Amino acid sequence: MTRTNTLFTLAMAALLSLSACHKTEEAKPEATPEPAEAAQQAPKTEVPAKPAESAPDNADAPKAAQSLYDFTVKSWDGKDVSLKDYAGKVVLVVNTATACGFTPQYDGLEALYQKYHEKGLEILDFPCNQFGQQAPGTDQEIHDFRANEYKVSFPQFAKIDVNGENADPFYRYLVSLKGFAGFDPASKLTPILDEMLTKSHPDYKETPDIKWNFTKFLFDREGKFVDRYEPTTTPEGLDAKIAGLL
């Protein structure tokens, strides 16, 4: 209980710090708050959040991709990994950061992994530095941080962009499956995120791009998309859903 409270306090402090930075920048003419700017580096997407059949026709995206298993990604140490390797598993995909208010969710994710890995759960970690520059390290440094600070053992992949013209094709596919799912109104962090994002992108709720670190996508054992969960949905909140899929 003490560790949980401490982690939540750190989470609040980190996001409040970002909010304070936002207010300082607001005093400059035409300035855009740094955290929100980082979260919205990509050009505004004009396509509303719809299922995959209504995804934007992006010439750079792999049009042949029809499922999770069509992709090959890079591991943190530079190896090619086919997502076919996870066929028959329940898969949770998450974009992470090492210096974010949501970073303590590593604890909850590792707890899920320890509880359900032998039953068929895989958690795929894709670090990203686009949101507040909160994953600044190299892949090796991120790997060491996960291991030393949170004892994380689930797979880590190479740091990528998840939004914008340099977005990884896998993440272009993910956001085509379902747009923004909405922040949890019960979370104390929701008002802070909403304020930051609204200031730079008033219609952010209508676009499908990733909004912040620790957005999650869940797939069943057949590789079929189940749902998207925003950062305010905790790993603990996914326990029952994952158990049902297993």
Question: Features of this protein?
Answer:
Glutaredoxin; 4-stranded mixed β-sheet; disordered N terminus; 246 residues; alpha+beta
Overview of this protein structure:
This protein is an alpha+beta fold and 246 residues long. It contains seven helices and six strands. The radius of gyration is 17 Å and the shape is globular. Helix 1 packs parallel to helix 6 (190-200). The chain starts with a helix and ends with a helix. Strand 3, helix 3 (105-116) and strand 4 form a beta-alpha-beta unit. The chain has one domain (2-245): Glutaredoxin (3-Layer(aba) Sandwich), CATH 3.40.30. It has a four-stranded mixed β-sheet with strand order 4-3-5-6, with helices on one face.
How do you describe this structure in short?
33% of the residues lie in helices and 12% in strands. With 246 residues, it is of the alpha+beta class. The protein has one domain (2-245): 3-Layer(aba) Sandwich (Glutaredoxin).
